[in-house]
Each structure stands twice: as C-alpha cells, then as structure tokens.
Amino acid sequence: MKIQANFFGLLLAAMNTITQASSEDFSLVLSPAVKYKKLSFEQVYPFGLRDPAPMHGKLNIDLVMASLSAFTHISDRLAVSIAYEENLTNASTNSNVPFTNPNLVNEDKNINFPIFNTFSNVSRADFNLTLTYKIGQLMPVWKNTNVLLGYLDGETQINPVPMTIPSSSSSSSSSSSSSSSSSSSSSSSSSKNLAQEHLENGFSQYKQKYRENGLYLGAYWAFTVKEINSLSLMLAYADMDGEYVDNYISSNDNQTIDLAFNFQGKTSGINAAVTWTGPLVSTPFSYSIVLSGQFYDMDGIDVTGKFARPDITYPTINTKEKMLSILLSLQWKAW
C-alpha cells in the first residue's frame, strides 16, 4: 500500500535524523495504540454520469484501527511526530453510495426497483507527519501555545459485495408471458451491482477509493494537571488534494469499455482533538486517551473526459467524510 510505504520511508529518515542529534536535545517516545473510529462517507453526483439522473448515497461504519507512532524533540522548541494507522479487523456495512448498489445501474427507466442497500467492505488507512513548535518561549503570554504544521495522507476504500436483485423484485409482476427475451435480458442486467458484473465477467474485484493528501496548519494548547498529568487541545485547518477513483469495466457483446472514474479536486476541512495523558504508576510507561474529529469536503472534476455531455463539459462530484474517534495509547520513552 502506498501510504504504508510512505510511512516506513519517513520513519527511517526520522530515525536517521535522531541518531545524528545530541542526546541532550531530544527524547524519543514510541506509542502503539488502538483506535475506535466512526466513519461517515457521503457522495453526490449532481449531474449524473453512467446513469443520467443525479445520484446521492452514503454509508456509516465503525472501524477498529491499529496505530503506531513515534514522537521526538529535535530541540527544546521543535518536536516531530510520525503516525500510521489502518484497520485492525475487517469491517462491513450496508451502503447506498452511488454504484455500490443494484438500483443505481438501472437501465430500464420503466422498471420500478425498490431501494436496495449493498453490503460493502470498508477500509481506512492514514499516515501523519507533524512538526510542532513552542511559541511560549518566545512570547510568555502564550506559554501554553504551540503551532503545528502537518502532512496527512489518508485513503478510504469501499469494496461492494456482488449482489443481484431477485427476479421477483427486479421485474414487474405480469399475468401474461408476452415479455420479449431482450426485455428480460435488460431486466436481468439492470438488477446487478457493478461488483456482480465484474465477478461474472471475470474482471478484478470492483472497488472505489477516495484519497486525500496535503498539509494542515493549526495550534494546540497544553496544560499540566496535578503536576503529573496533562490536558491538550488541538485545532487545525486542512487544505489538501483529493482524488476519487474506481475500476469499472463495462462488457457488452464481448466488447469491453473502460468506464473507470477519476475525479480530482481540492479537499478542505477541520481536524480537532482533546488529549489526556498520565503516568502508569511504578512503570516506565504512560498512557493517553484522545478524542478527535476530522471533517473533510471535496469538490472533484472528471479528468478522464469520458463522461462529458453537450450540456456539461466537466462532470463533478462532491464527497464528504466525517470521522469521530477515540484512541487509547501506551507510551514508552525509548530515549
């Protein structure tokens, strides 16, 4: 996975920097963690694409994440942290995100399908690199304030489970048997989601990926509680690049057509967190509990040129992600 490769490459670079620093200037803290994350994902196609009608859908899922981070002070003012997290267990949920469910590939507008949700497998991975600078030493009035500059690379992947609407639901009840074989074929075709089409045609598993990567800028405020505990608040604004892609291939009369999406645009949003840290008495470890929220919005433009229409040169898509998390970490001061 690209995000995983970025993490380990930057981790090695950071470790190299640490080994060249003076032992008086830095400390190194390693922190494994478990995170519970509630992810909400929503998409809107305002103009329609493979289907001419506008489309809208969403999913909600609970994820259990495994996280590993490293934190070091390069100097008494500057600190660096690196973190990577991904699903600890497989996670599935009902989804009506566009093109995951059968009713959104309906080609026969005279057929009145019920609304079906498709069972989808969902994964999430994040890489973070953050630089933190204490401005309190420069301006005593801001003694508890730190500014931060970070880089985030995050990816949400949706793998719909192949699904076909039962024939009793995908065709109108009729007392006569006058329907033609071509009509029956169209009804059958329109009752499948894209994952089912890929499966039957022997193509790779159908999947959708949404990725954001870029910078965020913010501040956090740290306060000592009863001399041994600390409470910190963080707020940051993210301005990133966003990309939404899938891998759909259409097959008709033994001809294959690449109809894969590729939407690109700007992603903006807010990161916020509250952290409580305290020692585990009589051990070399401490613990942290972090409550956090991430709220991202992307407006993307089709960059393939495959879906242009006379009235719309550049079809668009809007994607929203909301992630609410609670993290429990164990911290060990390795240096």
Short description:
This protein has 335 residues and is mainly β.
What this model shows, in words?
With about 325 residues, the protein is mainly β. The chain is about 10% helix and about 55% strand. It contains 4 helices and 13 strands. The strands form 2 sheets. A 10-stranded antiparallel beta barrel has the order 1-2-3-5-6-7-8-11-12-13. Strand 2 and strand 3 form a beta hairpin. The longest helix has 18 residues. It is elongated. It starts with a helix and ends with a strand.
Distance from first to last alpha carbon: 30 Å
Tally the helices.
4
CA radius of gyration is 25 Å
Uncertain segments are 10-23, 104-114, 168-189
* SSE run: HEEEEEEHHHEEEEEEE
Strand order of the largest sheet: 1-2-3-5-6-7-8-11-12-13
Would you tell me the structural class of the helices and strands? mainly beta
> Residue share in helices?
10-25%
Q: Give me the count of strands.
A: 13
Report the portion of residues in β strands: over 45%
Mean model confidence by pLDDT: 81
Could you give a short account of the major beta sheet? 10 strands, antiparallel, barrel
Inertia-based shape: elongated
Which features would summarize this protein structure in a list?
about 325 residues; single chain; mainly beta; two-stranded antiparallel ribbon; 10-stranded antiparallel barrel; 4 helices
Topology readout:
Layout: H1 2-19, E1 28-45, E2 55-73, E3 78-87, E4 92-95, E5 118-134, E6 145-160, H2 167-170, H3 181-190, H4 194-201, E7 208-225, E8 229-246, E9 249-252, E10 255-258, E11 262-279, E12 285-302, E13 316-333
Antiparallel strand pairs: 1-2, 1-13, 2-3, 3-5, 4-5, 5-6, 6-7, 7-8, 8-11, 9-10, 11-12, 12-13
